[in-house]
Design goal:
The structure is a single chain. The chain is an alpha/beta fold and 383 residues long. The chain is 46% helix and 15% strand. It contains 17 helices and twelve strands. It has a six-stranded parallel beta sheet with strand order 2-1-3-4-5-6, with helices on both faces. The protein has a six-stranded parallel beta sheet with strand order 9-8-7-10-11-12, with helices on both faces. Helix 1 (13-22) links the parallel strand 1 and strand 2 (26-31). The longest helix has 27 residues, at 221-247. The radius of gyration is 22 Å and the shape is globular. The N and C termini lie close together (9 Å).
Length: 383
C-alpha cells in the first residue's frame, strides 16, 4: 500500500512509521510546521501537488490537521489521524465531517462525546508502545547514575488562564468556581466540570468581560471547563511534587523554570533516547493526568511502563480496564493516597520491581503498534 505520511515533529512518528514499513507498506513523509494550521496557502499548494503526483491509498498523520483533512476530501483520499493530544482544540471539529476522515482518539469519553454530537468519523483507539525500541536501552551504570531518583516527573505544570479570565468577575462567581474546582480536584474517574458549569454561570463570566470593555471575548462551556481543568492539574502536580520533594529524592524534567521546594529541576529530556532512561532508573514515575482527559491512558503512562518503569498515576477508567492496581501499576485516588503509596513502595523494592515487570509485560502484549494499525485499517476499510 502507498502511504503519504504528514508529520510536524510528533513524538510517535518514528515508531508509527517503523511498523508501517515493517508491515510492507511504502511510505513517503512530508514534514512541515504550520504557522497557522487553519490557513496556509503555501502548504495547501505543495501538499495538493504531492497528492496528485502519485496514487496514494491513504494519508496518515499523528494528531489531526484540518488542512490535510480538507485536501484529502478534495482528492477523495482516505485520511487517518491518530491523536495523542487530548482534549482536541474545539475549532478542529469544523473539519470532522469529511467522509474521507478516520479520526482516532485515545480517550473513550472524548470520542463518545463527538459521536453523540453526530461526528461519525471519530473513533476510539488506545495508544501504543514500541517495546522493541525501548528494550534496546541496555543498562549502562555510567549513564544510568545521572537519571537515578526516588520519584521523577517528566512534563509540565500547565499555565492556566483561569486567573486572568476571572479578573473582572465578582466575588460570588469566583467563589463558586473555586468551589467546583476544589470538588473536581478531589474526585478521580468522574469529570464533573461540564455539568457544574451552568448557562447562568457562563453568562455571568461573559458579562464581567463586557463590564471592562472586552466585548469581543466570550467563553463557552468547553473553554471555561478547560481553564478550570488546567488550573486543577497545576495545583495537583505542584502539590505532589513538593510533597514528594520534602520526603524523597525527587526530580522534575521540564522545559520551563519553576521553583518547587526540595525538588531538583533537571530541564527537558529527549523523547526517544533520554526519557526512557529517566523512566527506567527512577524508582517511581509520577504521572498525574491532565484533568480533562476523562477516561483514557495518556502516552506518557504507556511510555513509562514500556521502558520498565513503575507508573504512579491517578485513577483512570481505561487504566483499570487493562491493569491491576498495585500489581501492574500503582494508582491513587487522592493526593494523600499518592504520597502514602510512594512512601510504601519506596520501602519495598521487591514489590516495586515486580510491578515494573508486570506493567511492562501488559503493555508489550496489549498496546502494540501492529495491533493498533490493524484496528485502524480495518475501520478505514484498508486491507
Amino acid at each position: 500500500m502507498n502511504i503519504l505520511f504528514y508529520d510536524m515533529g510528533s513524538y510517535t512518528y518514528h515508531d508509527f512509521l517503523y511498523y508501517l514499513k515493517k508491515a510492507g507498506h511504502t511510505c513517503k513523509t512530508v514534514y512541515y510546521h504550520f504557522p497557522d494550521k487553519f490557513q496556509d496557502a503555501f502548504f495547501c499548494e505543495r501538499f495538493d501537488a504531492y497528492l496528485t503526483e502519485k496514487e496514494y491509498d491513504v494519508v496518515i498523520s499523528v494528531n489531526f490537521f484540518p488542512l490535510v483533512a480538507q485536501l484529502c476530501d478534495k482528492r477523495h483520499i482516505r485520511y487517518i489521524s491518530w491523536c495523542y493530544d487530548s482534549p482536541l482544540e474545539e475549532r478542529l471539529q469544523d473539519y470532522f465531517s469529511y467522509e474521507t476522515n478516520y479520526i482516532f482518539l485515545f480517550d473513550r469519553m472524548e470520542a463518545a462525546q463527538y459521536q453523540a454530537a453526530g461526528y461519525t468519523r471519530v473513533f476510539h483507539l488506545p495508544l501504543a508502545v514500541n517495546a522493541k525500541r525501548l528494550d534496546a536501552f541496555c543498562a549502562n551504570p555510567a549513564i544510568d547514575t545521572a537519571y537515578r531518583a526516588d520519584v521523577s516527573f517528566v512534563g509540565n505544570l500547565y499555565e492556566s488562564p483561569l486567573e486572568t479570565l476571572l479578573y473582572s468577575a465578582g466575588d460570588y462567581i469566583k467563589g463558586y468556581i473555586e468551589g467546583i474546582l476544589q470538588a473536581q480536584l478531589r474526585i478521580y474517574g468522574c469529570y464533573l466540570l461540564d455539568d457544574l458549569i451552568s448557562d447562568d454561570l457562563l453568562d455571568a463570566v461573559n458579562n464581567s468581560f463586557a463590564k471592562i470593555g472586552q466585548t469581543n471575548l466570550r467563553l463557552n462551556r468547553r473553554g471555561l471547563s478547560y481553564a478550570i481543568a488546567t488550573e486543577i492539574t497545576h495545583l495537583e502536580r505542584s502539590f505532589l511534587l513538593e510533597e514528594c520533594g520534602e520526603l524523597f529524592h525527587t526530580c522534575f524534567y521540564t522545559s520551563k523554570t519553576f521553583h518547587l521546594n526540595h525538588v531538583k529541576l533537571c530541564g527537558p529530556v529527549k523523547y526517544e533516547d533520554e526519557m526512557p532512561l529517566v523512566f527506567r532508573n527512577s524508582k517511581l514515575n509520577l504521572c498525574p493526568t491532565l484533568k480533562c482527559i476523562q477516561s483514557g491512558i495518556p502516552l506518557r503512562a504507556l511510555d513509562i511502563m514500556g521502558a520498565r518503569g513503575v507508573l504512579l498515576s491517578n485513577y483512570q477508567p481505561e487504566l483499570a480496564e487493562y491493569f491491576e492496581n498495585e500489581k501492574d501499576v500503582i494508582w491513587y485516588d487522592s493526593m494523600e493516597d499518592a504520597i502514602a503509596k510512594a512512601d510504601f513502595y519506596l520501602k519495598h523494592e521487591d514489590l516495586r520491581k515486580q510491578i515494573a515487570l508486570n506493567g511492562y509485560q501488559k503493555v508489550k502484549e496489549h498496546f502494540t503498534y501492529p495491533q493498533r494499525i490493524r484496528e485502524m485499517f480495518d475501520i478505514a476499510g484498508i486491507s
